[in-house]
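Technical note accompanying the year-one report. For the benefit of new consortium partners, we illustrate the data format agreed upon in the data management plan: each record pairs a sequence with a structure-token string. No post-processing was applied to the example shown here.
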Amino acid sequence: MPVYEYYCDPCNGIFEALRNMRQASEPSPCPVCNGESQRIMPTSFSAFTFRDGYPRRIPDKGTYWHLGREVKNPVTGAVRPNEHPEINKPEPAPTLLKGDAEVQREQRREQAKAMVAEETERQAAIQAYERRQASNPKPADV
């Protein structure tokens, strides 16, 4: 049932009443003085519609609201709580300067050389151990 506004002339009051559409034009009793009141046009008007499951004011600009900020698209997909991709844009990865990139390449080369040297030392130690084991035969178990 719709809500209608009525004006009571004897007590100069405005009130709302929930009534059937059939009874809308008939006078309504005033809740204060119980006198007859006439229906008036609404003193406030709020129109809205639903779009994508959300209530929207009319006229609708086609934008959405996220935590008090206007955005063009609703949140879709996986995002962190209370964040919107249009508002909380991820920081781009920092780009390296030419000199910094050269320093990183040189560090990687040095690390690779150190790893090769360590592996060579390990292999040499293994071969020395195997030669010692071959030259010192174990005594036979009696």
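Partners are asked to follow this layout when depositing records. The CA atoms of residues 85 and 91 lie 11 Å apart.
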